[in-house]
Amino acid sequence: MRDRYQIRIIVYGLVILLAFALLTTRLYQLQIVRGDYFQLWADKNRFRLVPLEASRGIIYDRRGDILVRNIPSFTVTVIPAYLPDDPASEEVVFERLAALLSLPATREDILDIAEELSVSVEEVTTRGIRSIQGMVDEVRDWSPYRPLVLKRNVDRDTVFQIEEAHLDLPGVLVEPEPVRQYPYGELMSHLMGYIGPVPANQVEVYKAAGYDVNQDRVGLIGAEDAFEDLLRGHKGEKYVEVDVAGREVRTVSESPPTPGKSLRLTIDLALQEQMTQALQWGLEQAGAEIGVTIAMNPQSGEILGMVSLPAYDNNLFSGGISTADYRRLSEDPSHPLINHAISGRHPPGSTFKIIPATAALQEGVITAQTLVDCKGTMWLPDRRFPDDPEQGQTFYCWIHNLGRGHGKVNIISGIANSCDIFFYWLGGGFLDQFEGLGPDRLVDYAHLFGLGETTGFDLPGENPGLVPTAKWKRINYSEQWVTGDTYNMTIGQGYVLATPLQMVNATAVVANGGTLYRPQLLYQVLDDDGNLVRDFAPEVIRELPVDGQHLATVAEGMEAAVVWGSAQGAYLDTVRVAGKTGTAEFFDPDIPPDEEGNLPTHAWFLAFAPVEDPEIALVVFVYNGGEGTTTAVPIAAEILRYYFGE
Known about the structure:
With 646 residues, the chain is an alpha+beta fold. It has 3 domains: 2-33; 48-263, Penicillin-binding protein 2a (Domain 2) (Alpha-Beta Complex), CATH 3.90.1310.10; 269-312 and 325-509 and 531-643, DD-peptidase/beta-lactamase superfamily (Beta-lactamase). The strands form 7 sheets. Strands 2, 3, 4, 5, 10, 18 and 19 form a 7-stranded mixed sheet that branches. A hairpin with a 5-residue loop joins β2 (59-60) and β3 (66-78). The longest helix is centred in the N-terminal third of the chain and has 32 residues, at 2-33. The relative contact order is 0.11.
């Protein structure tokens, strides 16, 4: 019996020794053999590398008024590694977050949104609308411990609800973060633009430039886009210790971020406000919805003011625009999201006449004394059938509606009264009696003045317009260029198209005596302490090969337009103003001709002042605004009166 008891003790002892041996072996494997491996994973759970966002640069007007700034806000993030392992529990977290943040929870919700908007899922994604599930799955495998931004600019009430429920929302964090604020909203939206997530079609481009394409917000339009490299700054990072819920306990080390550069623009905020008020008033008077006005320093290319109406509130995009707001803006037939000042191309009408006027003087087609008899109409016979009236074509001067012509017209009175007959002769000639510029020289000078190509303006989205040629017409219409095409182009009709920015730049050429500048918006670059890094420098596109006296003659005709011609409404008592009106016919299927069959017209006006030493060049454009004299001139007059203190 005693021997049996001793055997049992020995067996139990051996079992215990074996167990301890196994435990020791296992501990040795875990702590010695694979110690570094498990230490690494423990540290990954305990420590986290947190990127520190660099504050984006501030944007000022030329006088130092703040146009764009950063304000504190709250950002909700999630760390995928701390989400529940069970898919069902994880989906519960997604659903609760979706309800709090007004975001789609799952991919099925994205499908519902696409169906509601009648667009594809890809279109919904392009608009920046993504589900929480989709965002998490994108980064779960390659960056599970990095905070994923779900929504920025979250209101305080929502933040409090998330913090109160943090035990039921594992891995969800609330972090303070600066957000862009645009104090002047619609007044400056087309110039300032906004920031947002990296566009889906540019992911590789931004990734190559060092962006975190899943987290970073970038300039998408306007100055925010144009000066992205200056404004963005460079991120820092900190190494922190966290608890089991992923919340920060202490900072181990930190590398501070480098703030972005601040910018001072050429814009005068007070002038911008007055220009907006004047244009809005003019649109209301004309019953129009779309209009543009631009003010430029003709001696340097500085843009002093640029207004495109209708506008939009870019603060809507600051924290992520709602589906309803985006749909409302994108489906508006007046296209408030488009900067019509640089993107809209239209027939320039008679404002174009300053170009053939300059060309004809320089090429010796006319002199300042050349006279053309305007009877209100002119009949151009067909060269193949010169004696058959039915084969010819009648061309009209705008004054024929009054039952008369302008009589004997020279270059000064031709510009002042905007005589179409004079410019028909000047551009296309008249049979063997008078040799005009012809289409080739007309095209050459249009390009010299900057039409048919982008100006190189800072903001993205600029349209090059169109300067048609005989080859262009053959390709696009399978037709030969005829004299009538030259006539129409000479008065800014037919196929020629220009942006308001191109036309104000062409005006500046006449004002400054022959220099085509690149329009610029950037005035100064400042560091985060306000020290000057880079100053404005005018950029010359080209010096026109034109005698200054010829440009002075064109300017004299433009001043005559204001003193006694078609633009008398722009006359100022104390300042000499030069101007050129334009009324451009256009076709729009949604705007039918009037009862007499006349097409609708855009209203244009170009101006600069003072004539003797120009400080400001101005363009006013009103889409479907009627006549330049009655619609555009009064708007410009209000702006000029303010600028010169009248």
